[in-house]
Design brief:
- There is one protein chain.
- The longest helix is centred in the N-terminal third of the chain and has 10 residues.
- This protein is mostly helical.
- Strands 1-2 form a two-stranded antiparallel sheet.
- About 40% of the residues lie in helices and about 5% in strands.
- The protein is globular and about 30 Å long.
- It has three helices and two strands; from the N terminus they run ααββα.
- It has one domain.
- Strand 1 and strand 2 form a beta hairpin.
Length: about 60
């Protein structure tokens, strides 16, 4: 099972992250929500539809 910490870490580092509410940079600067897979347009039914989650997570584990 994926933890909230992993979802946030991957969201922060993912090159494919796109905030569901529109422009992610504006939304994050305004402090609405931190980057997380849970608020990315590619996160559907607990899965990354562009298959980036595992790739990004494993790259974080190696650093």
């Amino acid at each position: 099972m994926v933890s909230k910490m992993q979802l946030h870490a991957v969201g922060e580092a993912c090159p494919g992250y796109t905030y569901t509410g529109g422009d992610d940079l504006v939304s994050l600067e305004e402090g609405k929500e931190p980057a997380s897979c849970e608020n990315c347009i590619h996160w559907v039914h607990g899965r990354c539809t562009i298959d980036m989650f595992d790739k990004v997570l494993s790259s974080l584990d190696q650093t």
